[in-house]
Each structure stands twice: as structure tokens, then as C-alpha cells.
User: What shape does this take?
Amino acid sequence: MRDRNRAAAEYTSAPDMDTVLDQARTALDNPTRELLAHIGTALRTIHPTLAMREVTRLAYAGRAASDAHGLGTPRAAAALRLMLRHMPRVDSPIPPSPITRAEYGMRLLKKAGPAAVAAAARWAAAQRVAELHRQAAADYAAAQAARNAHSTRAAMCIPTAATPAHGGAA
Assistant: This one.
């Protein structure tokens, strides 16, 4: 009798184990949370009033996965599948009114959680600082080139509009 009960318990728990394994396989991990937060932040800031479409959802998920793990890599494909499982579909079922990109971004940020949102904000700030550094370096290089060009003209005595051609007073 005891063996029959144990066998019945093992038989009924097998589907439960399958669902537990499926849930563990599709659980929302921290890197995926951060990618969802990046996508949500981007959707809220870039054209937030436009209607959200399924193509936009797929494009943002694919871009985020390839940026994080490399273009066409197996890790990028796995990250894309995991993100798409957690990103709600837009076209089906069709809502009574179209959802905006900002509203969809808010849903993703809510799903990502506050820690991932904070990490995405830090990442966005770091990207902005890096962009400012690149811009400052380009401006400095342009100023150096202009200064070198001016000093070269002065050393070679190349006449300009400000200096007379024959050395006389203007």
C-alpha cells in the first residue's frame, strides 16, 4: 500500500516538476530585467507619443540583445527569446485604443522592477557622459587644427584678408 501511494505521488508530481522547470527556464533574471529597463526608458524618451507597434517591439528587443551579447551569437538569440517572453505583445489581442510607446515603456519598467530601472538610469547617465567626452575631444581637436592652420599661415607669411599683400598699410 505504501509503495502504491509513493508511486501515485511521484506520478502526479512529474507534471508539476515540468512546470517548475519551465518556470525556472523562463524566469526573469537580472540581465534581462536591465535590458527591459533600457528598452522601457528608450521608448519613454524617443517619440513617446507615437503608437507602439509589434514591429517596434521586435526591433527594440533584437537591438538590445545584439548590443548586449553580440550580433548573431547564441547568447543574443537566447536573450532575445527570453525578453520576448516577458514583453507583452502589442497587436494581439487588439486593444480598444492603440497604446503609445511611453505607455508600453512604463509597462516594461514596471515589469523590470526598481533595481533594474536604477541600473538603466546609471547606464544612461554614463552613456551621456561618454558622449560629452567624445564631443569635447572632437571640439578640442578642431580648435587645435584651426590654431595650427593659423600659425602656419602666419609663419609662411601667406596674405589673408586682414594683412596686405605688399607689406604696406591697408
